[in-house]
Amino acid sequence: AQTVTQSQPEMSVQEAETVTLSCTYDTSESDYYLFWYKQPPSRQMILVIRQEAYKQQNATENRFSVNFQKAAKSFSLKISDSQLGDAAMYFCAYRSLFTGGGNKLTFGTGTQLKVEL
Amino acid sequence: SQTIHQWPATLVQPVGSPLSLECTVEGTSNPNLYWYRQAAGRGLQLLFYSVGIGQISSEVPQNLSASRPQDRQFILSSKKLLLSDSGFYLCAWSQGAVSGQPQHFGDGTRLSIL
């Protein structure tokens, strides 16, 4: 079974600065998908970014980018030019390539990001 | 575009009372559907998922059950609520037969048991 580990329960960043959230995972599969979700105080789960493991290029969505290191099984999220609205709980998630088994996600325990003025 | 609706947003129930939370998806067909529970300050625990009408898979033994009476309707139920059933419940959907698609979440239901 796959596991996802987020070793930073809390992180802080100054507004306009850059922060990196860590995520590692364990799997025996060679192809899979990785996601970052954001959960603001409203508790709505919002997809931030997606990475296909078979793509070497790191995914980017505006101020959000990932550093995907397949050999190290690492999938960190970088937030540039941090804004107050980025304050949220961030979850890393893993999904198998195969569509069987309900396409379930395995979530990490989350990192609470605080953005300071 | 696809949308997911989950209700109610907030619910306060006494111990021993029944529960019914409903989730519907619009704009897609044959989605995979999921129910999660999230304790305060914690991660998401998958409770049930469904790949089709009447097909329910349970991830953890518990006091809850799920049903999928229609293609885009997913219901979470309990006959008698326990204090431990308190939490934040999230419904989600994903495209079933398409690989790599993310899950999309509803706004959640905050359930408090008195």
Protein traits:
heterodimer, A: 117 residues, mainly beta, six-stranded mixed sheet, four-stranded antiparallel sheet, 12 strands, 0% helix, B: 114 residues, globular
Annotate the secondary structure layout.
The complex is a heterodimer of chains A (117) and B (114).
Chain A: E1 3-5, E2 10-14, E3 19-21, E4 24-26, E5 32-39, E6 46-52, E7 60-61, E8 64-69, E9 74-79, E10 88-96, E11 105-107, E12 111-116
Parallel strand pairs in A: 2-12
Antiparallel strand pairs in A: 1-4, 3-9, 5-6, 5-10, 7-8, 8-9, 10-11, 10-12
Chain B: E1 3-7, E2 10-13, E3 19-26, E4 31-38, E5 44-52, E6 55-58, E7 65-70, E8 73-78, E9 87-95, E10 104-105, E11 109-113
Parallel strand pairs in B: 2-11
Antiparallel strand pairs in B: 1-3, 3-8, 4-5, 4-9, 5-6, 7-8, 9-10, 9-11
Report on the structure:
- The complex is a heterodimer of chains A (117) and B (114).
- Chain A has 117 residues and is an all-beta fold.
- Chain A has no helices and twelve strands.
- In chain A, the strands form three sheets. In chain A, strands 2, 5, 6, 10, 11 and 12 form a six-stranded mixed beta sheet that branches.
- Chain A is globular, with a radius of gyration of 14 Å.
- The relative contact order of chain A is 0.34.
- The mean pLDDT of chain A is 93.
- With 114 residues, chain B is an all-beta fold.
- Chain B contains no helices and eleven strands.
- In chain B, the strands form two sheets. In chain B, strands 2, 4, 5, 6, 9, 10 and 11 form a seven-stranded mixed beta sheet that branches.
